[in-house]
Every structure is written in structure tokens, then in C-alpha cells.
Specification:
The complex is a heterodimer of chains A (66) and B (128). With 66 residues, chain A is mostly helical. Chain A has one domain. In chain A, 76% of the residues lie in helices and 0% in strands. Chain A is built from two helices and no strands. In chain A, α1 runs antiparallel to α2. The longest helix of chain A is centred in the first third of the chain and has 26 residues. Chain A is elongated. Chain A starts with 6 loop residues before the first helix and ends in a 5-residue tail after the last helix. The mean pLDDT of chain A is 80. Chain B has 128 residues and is mostly helical. Chain B is built from three helices and no strands. The model of chain B has no long low-confidence stretch (mean pLDDT 77). The chains are: A mainly alpha (66), B mainly alpha (128). Chains A and B meet through α1 and α2 of A and α1, α2 and α3 of B.
């Protein structure tokens, strides 16, 4: 994400990082045999989606809320 | 029965690991921005799907019964990954691809419309 050649690649790297973090959270939950980690995973998924869409809109329009 | 479940879970985990690695590695290694878009959005989604299936099987067989959280997360991710990919592709097309570089559409109309959009002038604010 730091040495990406363009803005779109940075956003894409952020999206990939969020998805990998979700997978890590779920694996951690399986490792510790608890269902407590599913709510953070769900929140990560939602916030990651909203953030990526907001960044793409910002690139497109130069503004998020019009 | 436990052995079959363990083998299935391990297979799902290995598949998810391979897909996640391929997706993240493709993000680094591919040349064109549109090619880079392909690798993480598909492969990483499949990787997370494999991990979620493995977790669902684990908690159904060894844990406290079947839970719907994984299904919710899977559904949400599978719904939102194409949307984010589409948004990033659209932003990339609008910002860094010239109109003259686009290949011909093969129809009478421009890209991203199925039929003639008609008069582009809209009332109110001018479009950016």
C-alpha cells in the first residue's frame, strides 16, 4: 500500500488488507475455539466495504457527500 | 466421522491459504492496473470463503453447534467484493485512461451504456 504506483492501487491494497484481516480474525477464532471473533470480522467487512466505496467515490468526484 | 470432518476442514484451510497467497502475490506482481484489479478481488474472496467454510464446519462438528455468523459474513463479502471491484475499476477508467485509448465497442454506442442515452443535457447542475 505504501509504494503503490497509483491511487487506485492504494485503495485496492487497502481492500485486500481488510479481507486478509477478516480471514486472520476467523482463523484466530477457530484457534481459540470461541465464537467471539465473528462480530469483529463482520464489522471489519462492513467498514472495509464502506471505506473502499468512499475512497473510490472520492477519486471519482473529489468529494464524498455532495 | 471426526477424521472426515478434520480432513475436510484441513482441505478448506489449505485451499483458502493458497487462494489468499495467490491473490496478494498477484496484487504485487501483475503489470497493468486492470490486471492488478483481478487478482485480489477474486482470489482473496475465494480465500476468505474457504476460511469461513472451514470455520463453519469446525464449529458445527467440534464447537457449540451450527452458527449463522459465517454465513452472514460470507454473504456480505460475496455481495460487496464485486461492487468494490467495479467502483475501483470505474475510478481508474475515469481518472487515468484516455478516451481515445479505449477499444471500439462494436456497437453504435459508447462504453458502459446498453442503448442510446439520449440528450445528455440535464437540468440543474452541470455534470462534472
Amino acid at each position: 500500500m505504501v509504494r503503490a504506483p497509483g491511487v487506485g492501487d492504494r485503495v485496492l491494497a487497502l481492500d485486500t488488507m481488510v479481507i486478509n484481516a477478516i480471514a486472520l480474525l476467523i482463523l484466530y477464532g477457530v484457534l481459540h475455539d470461541t465464537t467471539m471473533y465473528f462480530e469483529p470480522a463482520m464489522l471489519f467487512a462492513m467498514v472495509g466495504f464502506v471505506g473502499t466505496v468512499a475512497y473510490a467515490r472520492f477519486m471519482l468526484r473529489g468529494d464524498i457527500i455532495e | 466421522m471426526d477424521l472426515i470432518a478434520e480432513i475436510t476442514i484441513a482441505f478448506c484451510l489449505v485451499v483458502s491459504g493458497i487462494f489468499g497467497l495467490v491473490g496478494s502475490f498477484g496484487l504485487i506482481r501483475l503489470d497493468q492496473p486492470m490486471q492488478r484489479l483481478h487478482a485480489p478481488t477474486k482470489a482473496t474472496t475465494l480465500g476468505v470463503g474457504g476460511a469461513l467454510v472451514a470455520s463453519m464446519l469446525w464449529f458445527a462438528v467440534f464447537g457449540e453447534g451450527f452458527s449463522f455468523h459465517e454465513l452472514l459474513i460470507t454473504l456480505f463479502l460475496f455481495l460487496t467484493a464485486p461492487v468494490t471491484a467495479f467502483f475501483i475499476a470505474k475510478a481508474h477508467l475515469h481518472t487515468s485512461v484516455d478516451r481515445a485509448e479505449l477499444p471500439p465497442t462494436g456497437t453504435a454506442h459508447d462504453w458502459s451504456v446498453f442503448e442510446d442515452p439520449g440528450d445528455p443535457e440535464l437540468p440543474g447542475e452541470p455534470r462534472r
